[in-house]
Amino acid sequence: VQLQASGGGLVQAGGSLRLSCAVSGGTFSTYRMGWFRQAPGKEREFVAGISRSGSITQYADSVKGRFTISRDDAKNSVYLQMNSLKPEDTAVYYCNAGIWGWGQGTQVTVSR
Q: Over the stretch 47-73, which tens digit does the pLDDT of each residue have?
């Protein structure tokens, strides 16, 4: 299974970004998917998760109300819509397909 994350970049505080993660080589519809992030000098942390059906989502308290995770099984992809970004959201963001592995990460930098 291969995961390819994209969509990161540099944005001002208060701005928005949409991350995408394309999954290939497996049966995407059977995977619970998640987004994690790792800031410099910190451990990787959970950001958001979505169930196989897409009906259940979970969020870290720090992003609730600002980030939205979604999936499109027809495109074998999971997304993270990030609004009202803050400088503390700056990190490398990784998509995850449970035991099936991790994407390579995409850098998100939020300037003040």
A: 999 999 999 999 999 999 999 999 999
Hey, which bits of 28-84 come out as E strands?
33-38, 45-50, 57-59, 67-72, 77-82
Q: 54 — phi, psi (to 5°)?
A: 85, 0
Determine the Cα–Cα distance for residues 2 and 22; give it in Å rounded to an integer.
Answer: 8
B/e letters for 4-24, b = 16+ CB within 10 Å, e = fewer, are: ebebbeebeeeeebebbbbbe
C-beta neighbour count of 76 within 10 angstroms: 18
Q: For residues 78 and 108, give the distance between their C-alpha atoms in angstroms, rounded to a whole number.
A: 17
What confidence score (pLDDT) does residue 33 get?
Answer: 97
